[in-house]
Design a protein that fits this description.
By secondary structure, the protein is of the alpha+beta class. It contains twelve helices and six strands. Strands 1, 2, 3, 4, 5 and 6 form a six-stranded mixed β-sheet that branches. The chain is rod-shaped.
């Protein structure tokens, strides 16, 4: 089996242009060819004009009337085919003109011209709103039957079903075109939303990554500066740590940009220990956490939360002690894993409003059906993040089941 040489995207784009105005000559010609094919029902009137059964004035009048009919029909269908609803006064006048021409030509030139009512029905199904099309199409068939009583009753009966079916078929085609256009717009909207979501993800990742790493670099730089006069060896160690943190930050940023970074709680706990110690904060952190039943994405969200919380403690709180707890709880919504970060500093953000970091963390946790709480306590500031647990582990009771703590 050979592959279709037309790529899926190109084929989809070509189909999506249905219902739109032509953008160039090529599209106009393609649309014209599609419409002109259906002029096959004009063969009977044309044959009648060239048969020699009419006088010269009648033939001339017939050609003029036929040309006017075709011009109005093509203009109407070409401009309105695929639009959700035309229904303007000009459209109504053009359809009435088609009906009037078809009636006059049938009365003056005979039954071979009854086929023009097929085009009147198509125009009704194409250009009118659906609620109008549903009654104008059978009305066109009734008018054709009445006109057919003038010497062409049998021809009219043979065409009545065709007039009705083609008219209603065009309403279906128009709805299909409208659906196609709406799908194209929806696809464009989804693409835009996906791009916005990716930008938000990247902004959150870069904020969390660089905020933590740059804070640690700043602290170690200050330590190195204070150690240089009297303790050059210790200062050199701090500089080496700065180099290591900088390299790791570069790796983290690259991974975040490519969408592959998924921080783990164990690694973030180790990093939090280093950052808090370097800032002169007494760190009380859990041991190796038990993450049984915690989805990878949920663990990643908690890891980002821990990183942001520790960064805020180091940069803004002025705290002397920080306690991190990781515990399982049973809630009304089921078992959850809760991460708590509490310090004895000022905490919070300027003005008491959530900062970009807390806003980003809330978005991360909500994507995993989790939640975030942050606020002042009597002794400082506390941040609590929760994510639901899965797996076959038995749910815990209402009491806390601490996974690990340095207490």
């Amino acid at each position: 089996m050979t592959e279709d040489p037309l790529p899926d995207q190109a084929r989809s784009d070509r189909l999506m242009r249905m219902g739109e105005s032509p953008r160039d000559i090529r599209e106009a010609l393609r649309k014209s060819v599609w419409i002109v094919i259906w002029l096959v029902f004009l063969s009977s009137p044309v044959h009648d004009l060239v048969s020699g059964d009419h006088t010269t004035p009648a033939v001339v009048a017939g050609w003029v009337g036929l040309a006017a009919f075709v011009a109005i029909y093509l203009t109407l269908v070409f401009r309105n085919m695929g639009k959700a609803s035309a229904g303007t006064l000009s459209v109504a006048l053009m359809v009435l003109a088609l009906g009037a021409l078809a009636t006059v030509l049938c009365f003056t030139l005979g039954p071979p011209w009854l086929g023009l009512f097929v085009y009147v029905s198509v125009a009704c199904g194409t250009a009118f709103p659906l609620r109008v099309s549903y009654w104008t199409i059978p009305l066109t068939a009734v008018v054709m039957l009445l006109v057919g009583l003038h010497g062409g009753e049998e021809d009219a009966r043979n065409l009545v079903l065709l007039v009705v079916l083609i008219g209603y078929a065009m309403t279906g085609v128009r709805q299909l075109v409208r659906t196609t256009v709406e799908l194209r717009r929806a696809r464009a909207t989804v693409a835009q939303l996906a791009a916005n979501e990716e930008r938000l993800r990247l902004a959150r990742d870069l904020h969390d990554l660089l905020g933590h790493s740059l804070s640690l670099i700043t602290l170690k730089s200050e330590l190195a500066g204070r150690m240089l006069p009297d303790h050059p060896d210790k200062a050199a160690q701090q500089v080496a740590d700065i180099e290591q943190v900088s390299r790791q930050a570069l790796v983290d940023v690259r991974e975040a940009v490519t969408g592959y970074r998924r921080p783990r709680l164990a690694g973030e706990l180790a990093g939090a220990q280093v950052a808090l110690t370097a800032a002169g904060v007494v760190a009380d952190l859990p041991a190796e956490p038990d993450l049984h039943g915690v989805p990878t994405e949920s663990e990643s969200a908690l890891a980002w939360t821990l990183r942001e919380a520790v960064t805020n403690v180091v940069r803004h709180s002025g705290a002397r002690r920080c306690t991190v707890e990781l515990m399982r709880r049973q809630t009304l919504d089921g078992p959850v894993l809760e991460l708590s970060v509490e310090d004895d500093g000022l905490g919070g953000s300027a003005g008491g409003t959530p900062g970009n970091g807390l806003t980003g963390l809330t978005e991360r946790l909500e994507k995993e059906a989790g939640s975030l709480e942050a606020g002042r306590t009597r002794h400082g500031f506390r941040l609590v993040a929760r994510v639901p647990l899965t797996g076959d582990r038995a749910p815990l009771g209402p009491a806390d089941d601490t996974v690990g703590s340095g207490a």
